[in-house]
User: Fold these one by one.
Assistant:
Number 1:
Amino acid sequence: MRRFGLCSIPLVLALLLTGCWNRTELNEIGLISALCIDRSEEGWIVTYQFINPSAISAGTGGASKAGGGESPVHVFSSEGPTLREAIDVSYTESPRRLYFPHADVLVLGKEAARKSITDVIDFYWRNTYLRENVSVMITEGQASEMLKQLIPPERLPGTAMAHISRQTDHFNSNFPSIKMYELTRSLDSQSGVAGVPQVEVVGESQSRIESMDQLHKTSTPAKVRITELAVFRKDRSVGTLTRNESIGISWLTDKIRISALSITCPGSNKGTEKFSFQTFSAKTKTRVRKEADGFTMLVSVKAKGRISESNCPENLANLSNLRAAEKEIEEVIKDYMSKGWEASKRLQADLPHFADQIHRKYPKEWSKIKDQWEKEGMQSTRLVLQVNVTIGQTGMSQKTFKPDGG
Amino acid sequence: MLGRLLKKALKRSRPKNSTQTRTDAPIEIRMTLQESIQTLTHIMGNSTDFMVRKISGREDLPEIAICYIEGLVDTNLLNRILESWLTVTLEADQMPGIESLLNKILPAGPISKLHTTQSIISAVLDGKAVILADGMKEAFSASIESLEKRSIEEPSSQTVIRGPKDGFTEDISTNLSLIRRRLRTPSLRVQSMVIGSYTNTKVIMAYIEGIADESVVSEIRARLQSIETDSVLESGYIEEFIQDNTLSPFPTLINTERPDAVAGGLLEGQVVILVDGTPFVLLAPVTFFRFLHSSEDYYQRYDLSTFLRGIRFFSFVISLLLPSLYIAISTFHQEMIPTTLLISLAAQREGTPLPALMEAFMMEITFEIIREAGVRMPRVIGPAISIVGALVLGQAAVQAGLVSGAMVIVVSFTAIANFAIPAFSMAAAIRIIRFVLMLLAGTFGLYGILAGIIPIYAHLVSLTSFGVPYLSPVTPLRFADLRDLFVRLPWPFLKTRPQDMNRRNMVRQGMNRPQQGKK
């Protein structure tokens, strides 16, 4: 026992001698807020958006001047035949250790998206230092350009992009945001299709918002915006959907949360008078039915909402008008959905993931038509739409406001 | 390992202590007064405060002498004795016994017969007046001691908002009376002993018969009696002699200045040890959770008490872990911090020269120095220290870029949390352990913290206080006691006493059942 004790002293002391093992001080790591992957001829170009903490936090920290003049982020790229090598090459110019877990967004360049993104997905899942919950986005052209754009009033463009995607998802459900793990799951499903929001710089194309001077203006001439929904099939992008088509897909896939629809008034003769309907809950259920000449998808939507503005001649609080208005809304939703489905058929991409439902319900039939699904099966699948809309509230007023002295 | 070495050192040092025995076979009292006085003054080494007053005014009575120590006796009472000795009228021509005569003239309080010189000396040193008579082999002691003592004041170390404001003083009989006043029952047993060959300090052990566990009582009694030391100046001496585990940083006896806390402890089966000369009274056995309870918990409403207990348990954890968690997460696990927080932390760390571990150590040590200085320095300079501490070491250090602002916040919060722990001895234990955990956190991250906490927990589980498991009633689990542990249920629900201290007399409410041991 005594000998054991004596032996353990040097062992315990040796533990202390290891020093601080894989310790990294906060001022030794370079926090990355956005990552961007492009394809070059030889391989990959990885672009990083470094956070410059003292410029962001106007606090008291080490640098006492509240970083008004410094740029909140620094962007630089490195190239290599594989992603990991590209990152390793970055150490030839980065003074700090790259720290990925806090990256909010991954932007894929068009070239990369067109060729194949399987490498990227594999890289993300294989390594522990990358997080699968980053928002994935696509951009027209070189993705590295996107990282250089400042998005006022947010100081961190990467975070701002992730926020834009999230706000879109939350407050109008036009372009559902997608995270790395969702993308992987979608691509790996039977339908093998995923929609990824596409960001672009719109406005005066020459005046990119790269300079800090832009932060001093009240309106930047160019803005980052989500414009379309890029569609991935298996491993590459095959086309895009417009906003209206994307909304239809959102309705079909039960992604709608809060969304505003502009509807023609029930009593309007020329169709110029409109009211807007804002959903506050929506539920879409899809069932599949096999028929002699293919499959029929029964899509039933239940939506509840309120009227948030009205220009209608009739009083919408009146019950018969209310029912008529509901009918109109139902038609509009149906229209969105069929447009979305048409677009899916056009791109031969099963965005509503009907394939998974068929696979689940009719596994035997599915294995037969699997290979020809996009080309034939999808095209012959019929959609039966059933929409049930309830207007929960008409708001604080009933009749449309008209200053006629009455 | 270190523990074993220390234990060995202790064992080796024990016999040395015991060799220092007290002198002398008993010395008989001499027949003549002169000789007796000579012997006494010789033993007292001609100390100038040892007074011997000879009275030879009465022809019909033998010459007597009164010995006492100046300042320990009440002079008025002494004068009364002298007066009555000179004026007492004797029964008709009978030569009375000195004893009955003394009984007549001496004031209330016990009069005891002394037969040896040693007992005279100890009575005199206790503050009694000893009366020797010429031609007698006996002496008589009269309790006329009057010690200068502090009046009862509010306890300075354990204050409450609601609850009694009286605190113990340095005088043991006052302290005992404060307890007696709260427990008017004959079941309160008081046993006194004298410890310390030079200090001869009076130590009192008290418990409630029928509630306190007999085996615990006899264990404490045995441990107290086995103390061999020359001095006991404070109850801390006793605590270190009788505690279960000398090497544990965790205290296994709790000390308090509050008589109400003592009364509460006695009613739950604890044994109290009072030591003369200190207002700090020991209670044993004690479990870990009692260090986080306050006597006020039972006076305030139960909802507030429960909330405050929650705050205290939380601040216990904060005080133990916050600096090490900060070090571990900010140097090893940055992915655990939300991005915006991380950015602001990173901005503060920009340009600070030291690694987080060093920074934390520096600040913690600085705080400990300020704290220690605050206790030791003269009261008058108090404000100066707080200015220097707050402005120079806090604000200026951050502005100079030596320390990050977040670290100052972490250290201050830890310090404040430490003050929220009601028992100083437990707070002190955590203060020490915190540094070890910080070192582990700086070396191994969260893994290191866990590697530190698991042994601490194992140690706590293995620790006992006079046979009571330290972590009871959580390990071993007793559901009934959970009603008054992390929460405090309203009094009507607390029908039983905590079971860790006592098993026999559990019911404390409900008039249908007879209560044993209590009248």
Number 2:
Amino acid sequence: MTSIAAATPAPPRARKLVGAGRRQWIGLLYVAPAVALVVVFFLIPLGMTAWMSLHNWPLMGEHSFIGLGNYAAILRDTRFWNALKFTGYYTVIVTIAIFVVAFPLALFVERPRPLTNLYRTMFFMPAVVGFASASLLWSWLLNVDSGLFSPAAYDLGLIDRKFNLLATFQPAFWSIIAMVVWKVAGFTMIILMAGLQSIPQDLQEAAVIDGAGPFARFRAITLPLMRRTLALALILSVAGSILAFDQFYIILRGGPRNQTLTAVYWIFNQSFVSFKLGYGAALSMVLLVILVALSLVQLWLLRKPEGLD
Amino acid sequence: MAQAASRNRRLAARIAEHSTGIIASLLFAAPIVWAVLSAFKPAQEARLPPLPPWPTTGFSLENYATLDTFGDGLWVSAQNSIYVSAMTVVLSVAVSVLAGYGFSRFRFPFKDLFFVLILSTIMIPFQSILTPIFLVLTKLGLHNTLTGLVGVYVTLQLPFSIFMMRNAFDAVPREIEEAARMDGAGNITMLWKVMLPLVWPGVVTIALFAFLGAWNEFLAALVLMTDQSKFTLPVMMTALQSGRFGAIDWGAVQAGVTVMMVPCLILFLVLQRFYIRGLMAGAVK
């Protein structure tokens, strides 16, 4: 189940078609719309972010150049650093939680047997639902009066008073973790499953003959051969979590007591609630540097095994 | 004796396996099922905790009907969402098919530079350049328009879909093209009549991803659409759920969430193999 790209070698590019030369230039026309979109909606905004970050830039009125003033302000902005710290904390916890659920699921659905396809589909379903829909759905389930969890626990006699899960930090935070794991685990499962299936069966069989137990086989064969898959699943989870916004905005509104403001949420507040566009741009630059650094780590983690390129 | 014992053990193992599978499946499906079923309760009942999830005081479409009474109404938002998603699908497919063909079959100046430029946009999340996008749209007169939002969504799809289409075209043998050219096919005829049918599965995959991306996107729509008449479903439903239209009507939230989820689920169930293919193509990259 790999892409056709992996299976088919690229056709020789040097070969010329009939009447080459001028006709090749037409290629520029084909890619022009895509390049134009990327320039307008990506390259220019990217340049502008850097430019704006050096300005005091209100929504209305003139903007003025203030050099590194915004960056100096960031250093003193404890709420931003708290948001960044919270984002990091959330990223670590949610990534671990996703793997703890997704890995057993991947092992469970890896081998074909009756009903496996049904299980895969069921586990994967929440992944195609949007984060906003999932958040709205869970904000209802988590509601203290009209929701499911608190009234159900009360009816079962587990608690003697209805408990508002969203009122204090710990239960609110773990509710979000539960929701994200529900939504994302199936996705991670499919990626891990592809990695498991790519391990040659005869390797495992040989190890069985050599007397290796299931745990030893997992450690000596499965894990090392899944390095790139694990790295990929890890990166997708980390990159997605660092940019988390929807669930914290919709379910918690950054609360309780602003304790669940993420980095993107803080940038959103500064740029589009307080309309400090220059400052928001400077914050974006900081986030951007962090993400590009992560991308470089990603390229290193995903490098092809030596001698196999 | 021993044989019977081992058969029993195998049976027990199988029962354990499938009970695990069924229970886990139910857990994953439960929140979705809960919302879909509860939405059919009369408004009075929908306000109470959903125990049991199905309507007990009679089946009703009241919650769907009330949705249209908030702000500019759900129907307006649904139309906006449909328009934005459909346009994103059509435009991202058109742009990516052209670009994929161009990158696969022609040599021209700056080709590698352009390809790397498009793919590298995936490294920088749009969340960090949203402010200037807002200003660029204002400059273009596209501020607070669905067209502007479509432009942003199409650009977001490009790295994945152009990569997919380039690979799909690369996999088509050159001989097919050469034969068609002998028969006098021009560039456009070639692409439309000869190549497109061969890369059709790739087109379905990128269309599916474009639809899901546009239908589910929240942050850009929240920031860029300031006028209620331009809200897409996620923005509209969040406004409703935040109490912007008075006391929160949870029955309406259930109905709205159902409207948001069902198209994604149906498309996924029907086009599952294309979805998984796309996921794998992204994964082996």
